[in-house]
UniProtKB/TrEMBL annotation:
Its cofactor is Mg(2+). It is an enzyme of class 6 (ligase). This is 5-formyltetrahydrofolate cyclo-ligase. Its EC number is 6.3.3.2. Residues 92-115 are annotated as: Disordered.
Length: 193
C-alpha cells in the first residue's frame, strides 16, 4: 500500500513538471529523442518496431513514427482495450490514425492481438519516470506492465522520458516491468544492466 500511494504522488509530481514546460521545450525534446533513437543500432536494423503516439505533454513521437515508417520499418501502435490491455495494429502514416476510446490517436488498421507486441524487434514505451535499474512509472493503468511482460528477454525495450525523469530509484511492485533502456533528450539511449 505504501508503494501504491507514493507511486501516485510521484506520478502527480512528474506530470506537474511536464505541465509547466513550454511547447518549444517539448518540441525540442521530441526532436532530440527522435534523432537519438533513429541512430540506435537495434532500431536501424529493426524490421518491426512497437511504438506509440505521444499525447498531451509527452515528448513528441510524431516525427519519429513518420521517420521510422518512411524508412521502411513495420511500426505497430497500441489500441487501448476496455480492460486496459493493449492490442496492436500497424501504422500506415499520419492519416491512418483516429481517436481511440480515451481520445488518443490510434491506428485504423486491423488489430493483430495483444500478443503482437512479441513480434517486435524493439519496443518503445511511454513513461512518466524511469530509474537507474530500468524500473518504469507509467500512467497507472498497468497497460505497459502487461505488454512488456509479453516481450522476449533479448528484445530492446526503451522508455522515453525528459532528462529530469531519469531518476535514481522508483517504487516497484511485483507486476512492474522494467525497460532495458531509457531515452532522454540530452543523454540519448541509456542502457541498463
Ligand atoms: N498483468 C496484469 N494484469 C492485470 N492488471 C495488471 C497487470 N499488471 C499490472 N496491473 C494493474 O495495473 C494497475 C496499475 O499498475 P501501475 O501503477 O504499475 O501502472 P503503470 O506501470 O504506471 O501503468 P502503465 O503500465 O499503463 O504505464 C495495478 O492496479 C496493477 O494491478
Ligand atoms: Mg507499473
Amino acid at each position: 500500500m505504501h508503494d501504491i500511494v507514493s507511486k501516485t504522488d510521484l506520478r502527480t509530481g512528474m506530470l506537474e513538471r511536464r505541465a509547466i514546460m513550454t511547447p518549444e521545450e517539448r518540441a525540442t525534446a521530441g526532436r532530440s529523442l527522435r534523432d537519438a533513437l533513429l541512430s540506435v543500432p537495434e532500431i536501424e536494423m529493426a524490421g518491426t518496431i512497437a511504438a506509440y503516439v505521444s499525447i498531451g505533454t509527452e515528448p513528441d513521437t510524431g516525427s519519429l513514427l513518420f521517420a521510422l515508417w518512411k524508412r521502411g520499418a513495420y511500426v505497430l501502435l497500441p489500441r487501448l482495450l476496455p480492460d486496459g490491455d493493449l492490442d496492436w495494429a500497424s501504422y500506415e502514416g499520419p492519416d491512418s490514425l483516429t481517436p481511440g476510446p480515451r481520445g488518443c490517436p490510434e491506428p485504423t488498421e486491423p488489430p493483430r492481438g495483444t500478443g503482437a507486441v512479441a513480434s517486435a524487434d524493439v519496443v518503445l514505451a511511454p513513461a512518466v519516470a524511469i530509474d537507474r535499474t530500468g524500473m518504469r512509472l507509467g500512467r497507472g493503468g498497468g497497460s505497459y506492465d502487461r505488454a512488456l511482460a509479453r516481450v522476449g528477454p533479448a528484445i530492446l525495450t526503451v522508455g522515453l522520458v525528459y532528462d529530469s525523469e531519469l531518476v535514481d530509484e522508483l517504487p516497484a511492485e511485483p507486476h512492474d516491468q522494467r525497460v532495458r533502456a531509457a531515452a532522454t533528450p540530452s543523454g540519448g539511449l541509456v542502457r541498463f544492466g
